[in-house]
């Protein structure tokens, strides 16, 4: 059973934008904001300097730079922040992936966390059921290796019998697995194998329903407990009027065709979660708000997390507390442009939130 964080002390994380997802105006690429070592390392170092607990390093094949290589590079150029490295299950030779993750964790002095990705490997299209079965097997074996356990596993996708490499010593423990997905197969894998179940922005009530559903599934089926994380954007300014103006400016140069093209680029563009984000936009009012301080306009130009918490510092903090009250114990936040919004959130909201990384290492 995984250890559970104090719900009153959430983990507050930022977003590394490795996947070409940084804009001053959505839908208007700016070469200065394109994914690169210089640009993305600045975002991560800004989050580290501002006191965030963790930073998501997303993975995308056609978009941006490689997340694993980036994590190795940034590991020795950060001091306190954890590195939430996105890893696509099936994309690499599994024993070599374990060695890479253990090496990066050593370089980062134990600050590595792992975001499990179950979408298609570039160039293939695998049906949902076998794809999630592959993810399940990879998560099981990867955890065993990173816990310094010998492998004797013969499944549909993994057939291995080997000992862990020397680098993964007897005192090693696996970094926590963050994982999200909204199909029945994804939820079952998460209940069985994840430590932190990630959900995308939604109404507070809907997020609470997801937490309740996953709590029951994990407990009744697998006798496990999960921590729950929310991935969302944020727009915070000193006044509500300034925040609303910033939101409108962000989409002021976006047309529908450009937004559609951006959303379709993602390998998970047809997933259950993406469909829910589209439905959320459809139910929003004319101004894009689906409930108080939750604005869906950002989803017009990105696949995945498609809503932002918008408001003044008190409103944003109150919204985060509302999500905490329904069970959220970790937040992965982002904003446009990412370094500038990171500074704004750190100035106006972060000092008023009691937060900490999800530590110590999880036990199972």
How would you portray this structure in words?
The chain has 364 residues and is α/β, with parallel strands linked by helices. It has eleven helices and 13 strands. Strands 1-2-3-4-7-8-9-13 form an eight-stranded parallel β-barrel, surrounded by eight helices. The chain has a two-stranded antiparallel sheet with strand order 5-6. β2 (54-57), α2 (67-75) and β3 form a beta-alpha-beta unit.
Question: Can you give the helix content as a percent range?
Answer: 25-40%
The outline comes out as globular
Order of helices and strands: EHEHEHEHEEEHEHEHHHEEEHEH
Tell me how many strands there are: 13
Any guess at the CATH architecture? Answer: Alpha-Beta Barrel
Using the CA coordinates, give the radius of gyration. 19 Å
The strand line-up of the biggest sheet is: 1-2-3-4-7-8-9-13
Can you tell me the CATH superfamily? Luciferase-like domain
CATH topology: TIM Barrel
Q: How much strand?
A: 15-25%
Question: How far apart are the first and last residues' alpha carbons, in Å?
Answer: 5 Å
Please identify the structural class as seen in this structure.
Answer: alpha/beta
Average pLDDT for all residues: 90
- The poorly predicted ranges are 1-5
Main pleated sheet: 8 strands, parallel, barrel
CATH class: Alpha Beta
Compact summary:
This protein is of the alpha/beta class and 364 residues long. The protein contains eleven helices and 13 strands.
Describe the protein's topology.
Layout: E1 11-15, H1 37-50, E2 54-57, H2 67-75, E3 82-88, H3 94-107, E4 112-117, H4 128-146, E5 151-154, E6 159-162, E7 177-180, H5 184-193, E8 196-199, H6 204-222, E9 227-236, H7 240-250, H8 256-264, H9 272-283, E10 289-291, E11 294-295, E12 308-311, H10 313-325, E13 328-334, H11 338-348
Parallel strand pairs: 1-2, 1-13, 2-3, 3-4, 4-7, 7-8, 8-9, 9-12, 9-13
Antiparallel strand pairs: 5-6, 10-11, 11-12
Helix pairs in contact: 1-11, 2-3, 3-4, 4-5, 5-6
């Amino acid at each position: 059973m995984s250890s559970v964080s104090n719900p009153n002390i959430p983990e507050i994380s930022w977003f590394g934008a490795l996947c070409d997802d940084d804009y001053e105006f959505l839908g208007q690429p700016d070469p200065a904001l394109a994914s690169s070592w210089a640009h993305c390392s600045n975002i991560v170092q800004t989050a580290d300097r501002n006191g965030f607990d963790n930073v998501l390093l997303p993975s995308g094949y056609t978009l941006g730079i490689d997340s694993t290589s980036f994590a190795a590079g940034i590991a020795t150029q950060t001091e306190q922040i954890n590195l939430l490295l996105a890893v696509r299950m099936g994309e690499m030779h599994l024993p070599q992936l374990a060695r890479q993750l253990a090496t990066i964790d050593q370089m980062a002095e134990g600050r590595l966390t792992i975001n499990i990705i179950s979408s298609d490997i570039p160039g293939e299209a695998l049906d949902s059921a076998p794809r999630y079965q592959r993810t399940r097997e990879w998560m099981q074996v990867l955890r065993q290796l990173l816990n310094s356990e010998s492998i004797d596993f013969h499944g549909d996708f993994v057939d291995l019998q080997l000992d862990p490499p020397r680098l993964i010593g007897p005192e090693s423990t696996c970094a926590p697995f963050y994982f999200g997905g909204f199909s029945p197969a994804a939820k079952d894998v998460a209940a069985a194998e994840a430590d932190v179940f990630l959900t995308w922005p939604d109404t507070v009530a809907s997020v609470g329903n997801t937490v309740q559903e996953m709590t029951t599934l994990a407990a009744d089926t697998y006798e496990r407990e999960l921590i729950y994380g929310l991935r969302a954007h944020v727009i915070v300014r000193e006044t509500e009027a300034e925040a609303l103006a910033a939101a409108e400016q962000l989409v002021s140069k976006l047309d529908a065709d450009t937004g559609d093209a951006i959303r379709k680029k993602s390998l998970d563009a047809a997933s259950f979660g993406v469909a829910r984000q589209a439905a959320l936009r459809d139910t929003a009012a004319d101004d894009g708000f689906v409930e108080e301080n939750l604005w869906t306009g950002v989803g017009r130009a990105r696949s995945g997390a498609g809503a932002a918490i918008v408001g003044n510092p008190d409103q944003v903090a109150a919204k985060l507390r509302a999500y905490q009250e329904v069970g959220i114990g970790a937040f992965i936040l982002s904003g446009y442009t990412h370094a500038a919004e990171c500074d704004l959130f750190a100035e106006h909201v972060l000092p008023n939130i009691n937060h900490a990384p999800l530590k110590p290492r999880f036990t199972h």
